Structures are given as structure tokens and as C-alpha cells.
Amino acid sequence: MIIGVPKEIKNNESRVGMTPAGVFELVKNHHKVYVQSTAGEGSGFFDEDYLEAGATILQSIAEVYERSDMIVKVKEPIEEEYGLVRQGQVIFTYFHFASSVTLTRAMLKSGAICIAYETVEDTDGTLPLLTPMSEVAGRMAIQQGAKYLEKPKKGRGVLLGGVPGVAPGRVLVLGAGVVGTQAAKMAAGLGAHVTILDINMKRLRYINDVMPSHVVTEYSNEFNIRKHIQTHDLIIGGVLLKGAKAPNLITRDMLKIMRPGTVIVDVAVDQGGCVETTRPTTHEDPIYIIDDVIHYSVANMPGAVPYTSTVALTNVTLPYVLELANKGWYKACEEDLALHKGLNIIEGEIAYKEIAETFKWETVVA
């Protein structure tokens, strides 16, 4: 099979779909790999590295799409790429279709086979291709939140760890999944007081067992959310509904009961956000303020640490890329249930019911 790795062109996205090590494995399995020139530079991988691994370097993104049977990316195609995707081509990347009807319609129109990293699901319900980026985003959420709590950034002027004689900052984490767990771990490591909310008691018991005593768990409901947002300095949105739009756990009216300078980092922005006032931002312009509450909702948070993110991503995607390349998408998805759940759109039809439900379409849309 011919695999193409284009340069990401989304705003401030420095990750790349595959490391030279990944290319080496594909070439070793007798596949041809085209990499767009400078695609890996943002992650610290250069054309020479890819050439040494056996790739062929192409100059333009159009050439990569035109010559490849399968495209391996990091982020969803953006408008400039819609016309490059063609009938029967496999696109393997993060799509998050539920957050964009425009993207969904474009991929339906293209006739491509869209396999989404974020919905590849193991038999135990875990999401192996989403996990490493959720780990990165969860940890980054605390770094960014701590920064924007500083007064020059319009925050409350709170140091999360506090100092002797001064109480530490308070962090509220919505969701005890991978993002929430990693965020709680980082915040606890800084010495902050952490409250983590979830509706899954099994997860709350796990958090309670593994976290230090200054991380406390509570059941998530509107009453508890309203109570805690009034006293916490940093709020992390880490709620995920597989393949569907995130629920709005914090509504617009709730902002008025928060203290001025409170910071919200909504990691769920890729799935529409779990805060009603969330809108996607970029690393170039990461925040906006509503009712004196700072919103940080960068849609590609791991893109700020591209070396770590690219290596972590290739570690988990490569086995699936090899499976797709060795067997073809149909046979690979037929034989691997986890990969089969990654099928979101197949040649003009929706194959993942949560997407159809989000837009109130039929499960299969021509």
C-alpha cells in the first residue's frame, strides 16, 4: 500500500502523523511511504531522517494526497484539504466529527473511508489511540491553568501550590477519565487542593485509592458543580462521550457565580466542550474572557509539545497503520473489532451512530 504523511496545516499544529521509526516499520513491511517536505520539522524530525528511514519526500500536500492510498494524519482535514480527499481513499486521523457538521458533510461528499483515532475502542472500553493525547492534554491543562491564574494574565493571582501560611489553590476537575486523572495528578503534584467529579463510582473509587489525601472525589451533579465553581480557582473540563458531543455541565448563567479571574480549561473542546461558552481557540490566541472568567479552549493542546505528542501518538497508531496497510481497510476492520469501531464514514455513509445522533440524521446518510 502507498501511505501518505502530509504536513499539518491547522493553526499552530506542529505534530506529524508518523515518526521516522514508524516509516521504517512500514517500509520494512514492503509499503511505500510519501512524506511531505518539512512535515516533521515542528516535532524535531527532518526530511533527512525520513529519507534514511526509507520514505520518499514530496514537496506539496496535493502530491501526497494524490499519490496515496491511505493518509495518516494527526488532526482532521481542514477546508483547504477537503478537495484533496478522494473517493475510496483511507483517512486515518483524529476527526471528532460531532463537533463539526461542515467537516462531516465534506467527508461524506468526498467518498473517503474515514477511520477516527478517537473511536478505536478495545474490548474493555478503553480508547487506545485517544489515551496518549488525553494524557498530554490533561497534564498540560494544569500547566496552562496555572499560568493564566497569574494576575498579568487577568487571573486571580493564585499560586496553585500555595506557600507556608497561605492555603493552596483549588482545582475542580470535571470527569475522572484519562484527562481528569492526569490533570488531578499534576495539580496534586503542585500541592493544590483538588476536587474531582464524575458519575462513574468505579472511577471515583479508583481515584480515591491512588491519589493523595488532598485529592477528594464527589459524585457529579448540577448541585455539586454549582457549589464548587464558586470556591475553586481553576476548572478543568475533561468529560468525554465516545464519538458524541460533550454535555454542557457548566452553563452560561453559572459564570456569574464564579469569582473574577477564575480560569476554565476545557479539554473537551474537540467534542464541542463541556462548558456552554466554550469555543475553539488556537495556541496563537488561546484565551477569551466572559463575565470575568478566563476561558482556555485550544483545540489541539498537545500540539504545543509536538515531540512528546508525536512519539506518543506513533507508539499507539503504528500497529493499526500496519494492519490497515498489510490487509487493506475492509479486511483489517472486519478482523479487528477495535479498529472496526474506528470506522466513522464509509464512502458517503455514516457508520458511527453517535455522529448521526448528534446531527439528528439517519444512522446511514448517503
Overview of the molecule:
This protein folds into two domains: 2-120 and 306-358, Rossmann fold (3-Layer(aba) Sandwich), CATH 3.40.50; 131-304, NAD(P)-binding Rossmann-like Domain (Rossmann fold), CATH 3.40.50.720. Helix content is 34%, strand content 17%. The protein contains 13 helices and 15 strands. α1 (20-28) links the parallel β1 and β2. α6 crosses α7 (178-190) and α10 (306-327) packs across α11 (329-335). The longest helix is centred in the C-terminal third of the chain and has 22 residues, at 306-327. The chain is globular and about 65 Å long. The two termini are 27 Å apart.
Q: Major beta sheet, specifics? A: 8 strands, mixed
The strands making up the biggest β-sheet line up spatially as 3-2-1-4-5-6-14-15
CATH top level label of the largest domain: Alpha Beta
CATH architecture label name of the largest domain: 3-Layer(aba) Sandwich
Indicate the proportion of strand residues: 15-25%
CATH superfamily of the largest domain: NAD(P)-binding Rossmann-like Domain
Give the strand tally. 15
Mean pLDDT: 95
End-to-end distance: 27 Å
| Helix content estimate | 25-40%
Write the element-wise H/E pattern from the N-terminal end onward.
EHEHEHEHEHEHEHEHEHEEEEHHHEEH
Structural class by secondary-structure content: alpha/beta
The radius of gyration is: 21 Å
SS element count, helices: 13
CATH topology of the largest domain: Rossmann fold
Shape: globular
Low-confidence stretches: none
The domain tally reads: 2
